[in-house]
Amino acid sequence: MKSVAIIGAGITGLTAAFYLKRQGVPVTVYEAGGRAGGVIQSLRQDGFLAEFGPNTILETSPKIKQLIIDAGLEARKLNSDPTAEARYVVRYGRPIQMPGSPLGFFTTPLFTAKAKFAVLCEPFIKPRRDGVEESIGQFVVRRFNQEFLDHAIDALVAGIYAGDPHKLSLPHAFPKLKALEDNYGSMIKGQIFGARDRKKSGEVAKDRAAKFSFDEGLQVLPDTLAAQLGGSLKLNTPVSKLTRTNDGWRVTTANGEEEFGAVIYCGTAHQLAKLEIEAAQQRRPAETFSEISYPPVSAVVLGFRREDVAHSCLGFGMLIPKIEGFKILGTIFSSALFPNRAPAGHVTLTSYIGGARYPELGLLPEKELIEATLADLRVLLGVKGRPVFTQTATYPRAIPQYNVGYGKYRELLKAIEAKAPNLFFAGHYRDGVSLGDSIVSGVNIAERVAKIF
Ligand SMILES: Cc1cc2nc3c(=O)[nH]c(=O)nc-3n(C[C@H](O)[C@H](O)[C@H](O)COP(=O)(O)OP(=O)(O)OC[C@H]3O[C@@H](n4cnc5c(N)ncnc54)[C@H](O)[C@@H]3O)c2cc1C
Questions:
Q1: Whole-angstrom Cα distance, residue 129 to residue 185?
Q2: Is 394 helix (H, G, I), strand (E, B) or coil?
Q3: Angle at 91 between CA 90 and CA 93, to 5 degrees
Q4: What angle do CA 126, 128, 132 make, to 5 degrees?
């Protein structure tokens, strides 16, 4: 039996490899870097646990739960603390808890009476059906109002994509919101009546999905999947070229060439643009992927003595809209979410800086990242003195921006797959940017490829 080459040992590639191997299909995974996990990175030091990339997995699909069971990780899985559900959004220079019920919405100081009235009117706004691709910003202003965009959605968009709401595409970056308008004519009606349909499909809305991690952070998952691959995971081995053969593909790396029946590309869009693919008379059919913006983001993980932080920090964290004028995009209250993220009597706060909002800040040197974060946390959370633990990580190219026009790249992927048989594309640049989306993408691509073997 011919084997499958998987390019990229992020969560997508590792999930695909895990399931192909379980079905008896031999795999080789090539990873350009020196470790498995891609953007997932957890570090245990001095009793603190720093999580630099994603912090939680949202259990939005039964496939995610199944992977954890199949990988034998149920005993190491940690559900987030149910008392840490509170989310804060900054307004008037302070974090205000987001309302969790309709009554809470009408009494919250987070929005003015005008914005609350706009929400009441939303079910009566006619759905747009002219096929024009809107940004999430245009959509929110059309269905709600400017205040809702500036003081709520801008912050949420920073939390998911580190993105710009005026650029992110409604159908590509927020397909579920678009579907609510298409299917129910309104967000509010869709939230109410869509629950029944979601139940049927087994899918769970992001705001209701369980959040989890592992005892030693998310890195446990890629490490476990990578360990099962043994010698078929090749680290520090970037793939530079793919050449079509009579019955599959030749994969070229600095170490030589190897032949496979199929190839699954699970890397990033910007690295795909550089990959030489000899197929369909074109050497670099994916060159235009270099246009996809991946703004830099730095994670700043700070540990404090409990008494040096005035805010309770009980909750998921806080998001900060641009209009509030802070440098950080938001902060996760890491030690409230999961146990063992900080030694007793301490708190761990994970802040993000940069993104499409302030790309230049995402590349600041470590010392400046820490000082900028501390300055904001002093005002927002009443932090005093110096942190007792500091760790930072910079992602020069963090999250792909599914901006207006992103459909062209998705179409191109389909067109390359059609012209280059047994070459497949999966992962965060195609199937959604969340960790859960990447896991589902890895499961689905393994099913698709297993069928041809
Ligand atoms: C800072 C940050 C915070 C995030 N927070 C969250 C969160 O809280 N919740 C959430 O759900 N999601 C979050 N995400 C998103 C989520 O982590 C990612 O979408 C997901 O992990 C992507 O996995 P992947 O395997 O598709 O890609 P990646 O993790 O990018 O892995 C791709 C791998 O492919 C390798 N590669 C590329 N080209 C080649 C080549 N030619 N040869 C060999 N190897 C190659 C790369 O080296 C890399 O290791 C966050 C992302 C970032 C950056």
A1: 10
A2: strand
A3: 85
A4: 165
- Output the CA 438–ligand 1 centroid distance in Å: 8
The yes-or-no verdict on residue 206 having pLDDT over 90 is: no
Cα dihedral 108, 110, 113, 117 in deg (nearest 10): -90
Tokens at 196, concatenated: 């029944």
Pocket mutation for ligand 1, best pick of 234, 435, 439, 443 (most atoms within 8 Å of C-beta): 435
Task: Determine if ligand 1 sits within 6 Å of the CB of residue 439.
Answer: no
Model confidence at 124, pLDDT cuts 50, 70, 90, reads very high
Q: Are 121 and 150 in contact (CB under 8 A)?
A: no
Residue nearest (by alpha carbon) to ligand 1 atom 6: 54
Calculate what percentage of the chain has a pLDDT beyond 70: 98
Ligand 1 atom nearest to CA at 436: 11
pLDDT for the residue numbered 281: 67
pTM attached to this predicted model: 0.96
CA distances from 295 to 162, 291, 299 (A): 8, 12, 13
Residue with the nearest Cα to atom 2 of ligand 1? 53
Residue 231 has pLDDT above 90, yes or no: yes
What are the tens digits of pLDDT across the range 339-392?
999 999 999 999 999 999 999 999 999 999 999 999 999 999 999 999 999 999
Cα 40 to ligand 1 centre (Å)? 7
d(CA 122, ligand 1 centre) in Å: 36
Sign of CA dihedral 347, 352, 353, 357: negative
CA torsion 187→193→195→196, rounded to 10°?
-150
> Which of 123, 97, 121 lies closest to 111 in space, CA to CA?
97
Q: Is the CB of 351 under 6 A from ligand 1?
A: no
Contact 48, 341 (CB under 8 A): yes
Instruction: Tell me, using a 6 A CB cutoff, whether residue 428 lines ligand 1.
Output: yes
Question: How is residue 21 written in tokens?
Answer: 């191997």
Q: Whose CA is nearest to atom 37 of ligand 1?
A: 267
Which residue, judged by its Cα, is nearest atom 21 of ligand 1? 435
Query: Closest Cα to atom 8, ligand 1: which residue?
Result: 54
Distance separating alpha carbons of residues 262 and 367, to the nearest angstrom: 46
Ligand 1 midpoint to CA 395 (Å): 10
Residues 107-112: what's their mean pLDDT? 96
Cβ–Cβ < 8 Å for 230, 52: no
Model confidence band, residue 286 (pLDDT cutoffs 50, 70, 90): confident
The mean predicted confidence, pLDDT, of the chain is: 95
CB atoms within 10 A of CB 340: 15
In the β-sheet with 77-79, what is the strand arrangement from edge to edge? 57-58, 211-214, 77-79
